[in-house]
Specification:
Helix content is 41%, strand content 17%. The protein is elongated, with a radius of gyration of 24 Å. A five-stranded parallel sheet has the order 2-1-3-4-5. It has a two-stranded antiparallel ribbon with strand order 6-7. It starts with a strand and ends with a strand. It has seven helices and seven strands, in the order βαβααβαβαβααββ. The chain is of the alpha/beta class. α4 links the parallel β3 and β4. The chain has two domains: 96 residues, 3-Layer(aba) Sandwich (Rossmann fold), CATH 3.40.50.720; 30 residues.
Length: 145
Amino acid sequence: MRALITASFDDAAKARLACHMDVVHEDWKQRRSIYFDGAEFARRIREVGADVLIVEADLVHAEVLEGVPLKMIGCCRGDPVNIDLELATRKGIPVFHAPGRNADAVADLTLAFLLMLARLLPPLRDTFRQGGGTPITVAGDFLSM
């Protein structure tokens, strides 16, 4: 088996995968290109000889699924919107993805926003933008700067 990985991929994870199959890694960030053209992508997959595909943003639609005999597809997204799941299912190609991929980042951002609101940062920002001397009204209290 041979995998073509076009997603950004951790070196340790790539090494674990390489224990089970040949791995060709073409990170889209380094290539500065995403495969939107299905015929071009199918051609590249055939050139590499891949039967496993791991993508992040590349489009895996009919031209790819009909043109290349894939055994499985991985998507490094929370929701594999770039893959034609219906066609992959009909062709018996399993598709795996990362549904909780951004959970930590979302939790961090939520806590940051809560702290920002608790510390009254939006009204303070507005006060400084207005010249620093305008009182701020927060929940009926007045703060002066």
